[in-house]
Every structure is written in structure tokens, then in C-alpha cells.
Design brief:
By secondary structure, the protein is mainly alpha-helical. Helix 2 packs across helix 3. The longest helix is centred in the C-terminal third of the chain and has 22 residues. The two termini are about 50 Å apart.
Amino acid sequence: MEYNTSLSKLILPEYGRNVQKLVENAVKIEDKEERKKYTEGIINLMGRMYPYLRDLKDFKHKLWDHLVIMSDFKLKEDSPFPVPETATFAGKPEKIPYKSKNFRYKHFGKNIVDMLKYAAEMEDCDEKRLLTALIANHMKKLYLTWSKDSVTDEFIFQKIKELSGGKVEVDKDIILSESHKLVNPNKKLKRKRK
């Protein structure tokens, strides 16, 4: 019995072990005409595995590139398209650096901070009060999703002031949505339906 752990590593696992074995067999074929028919059969099989991709303009090119990659670039002479360079696949890709390393309240997210900056630049008007109330409700929802504990409105107002650098304050007469309505808004509907 063969176990996957004892077999060779799949180069492109989305095609599966059987296609990988077919490609390995194609590499062993020495007659060029026979190998060409065999590889075209593999390409047709690979195309049937993902029929929704046939609408792409370079679909066959991608399939041939995948075949060449699975053959460890041994079938690059058989490809009717220019093959990718082997240097592209050597080594690990570079890490993508994060823009901000020290973000204090990750559960609120960077978008909340950006929205608070936008609100801080607005003039005092009804739109600003409405925007800060919406931000506060959203922050409460994010906090409840992250923490699962109840949170007071004053706590959220304090965090808004802190994240905006004191530039945005929420009116004390604003009442935020209740916690259970923010986290599970459809729970009541399910109970009523039963």
C-alpha cells in the first residue's frame, strides 16, 4: 500500500497525483512525436479539470506553463508557448512588510482609525455627530466580536477619544445599540419562527 507521505511531493497539487504521474511518464518518452501526442492529451485532461477557466484568453498558455513546471522544466522544448524562467520559481518569495507595526487596538482595525481621522477633520454639524455615532456602534460591535464580554458605552467613547487623539468626542446623550442586538441580530427572528 502506498501512502502519500512516502510518495514524491506534488509540484502543483491542484491537478492531483494522477496528472503528476502522467507528466512523469511523458518525460520518460523519448520519441518526440509520441511525446507530443501524450502531452497534448495531458493538456486536454487538465483543461477538462477546470472548464470554467476556458474563457480566459491565455488558457492554453497557462496549462502548458503548468505542465512544464510539473515536469521540472524537462518538457519546455515541447511547449508551443514561451516557457517561464526557472529562476522565478527558485527560492522563497520575499515577505511583504506591514505598513504599521505598532497598532495598539488591533480588534478595532485600521479602518476605524482612518474613519476617526476623517471625522476629526469635519466641521461640527449633524453629519459629524451621525458619523461618530455610527463609528461608535461599529466599534462596539467589533469589540463584542473580539471579546464576547459586555462593554459600556463610556468605554467606547473613551477609546474614540484616545484613538482620535482627543479630536473626536461623542455626545454623551447618544445611546449606542444594545450588545445582544449588535452581535446576534437574527437570534430573535429565529426564536419567533420556531
